[in-house]
User: Fold this.
Amino acid sequence: MLAKRIIPCLDVKEGRAVKGVNFENLRDAGDIAELSARYSDEGADEIVFLDITASHERRTTAREWVARVAGVTRVPFTVGGGIASERDVEALLRRGADKISINSAALDDPSLVDRLARAFGSQCVVVAIDARVERGTWRVYRQGGRVTTPRELFEWADEVTCRGAGEILFTSMDHDGMRRGFAVETLARLAGRLPVPVIASGGAGALEHFRDVFTAGKADAALAAGIFHFREMTIPALKEYLARENITIRL
Assistant:
């Protein structure tokens, strides 16, 4: 059985990590290089960096901080935000990123997923999906949760997987920052229908939430931000707990 992954996420704005609630009310969480080095030392399996204003500001990810992070990080890391072409991906990989994450650009042009998978391999392509429930339907959002789309979560996840996405990073906007647990039922449904790993995001607040997302939620990886940034939970303590709960984890 493959080990479950613990992934700290750094939402990046102007070179700093920030954290909010339901994608709003952002507060500073620290220097991204310092946080990256700490998580690498603590045993994170991977790290995700999302330039949360890049798409909204119609620019690509700020490449200078990617190189800075690569210099202090010893674990694989994914970069997302404003990526819209093969050239963008090539530049980020050249600066040290291991994977890229696309969201708004894939919604604008779904064929981008096909092209990136062909050029760099599916293992490099993570499609991030931000969604919330509206009138009983999981509606997909773009531009860092600012703009709604006509897309439905499960249909969109099916499509991008068929196009070559190697992983799906699903964030429940309703759960984000609330610390009441992940969207476990929805994650289990995604994991049950997709042939690729599903990364859970939005809602981590207690050790038990990670146990539940891996057992009932069937997620392959769990992503969290604020509880790690502000030292309310450490990665070693979390992994030790999960091991006691008989969940396969890298210690």
Q: What stands out?
A: The chain has a mean pLDDT of 91. The CA atoms of residues 17 and 105 lie 22 Å apart.
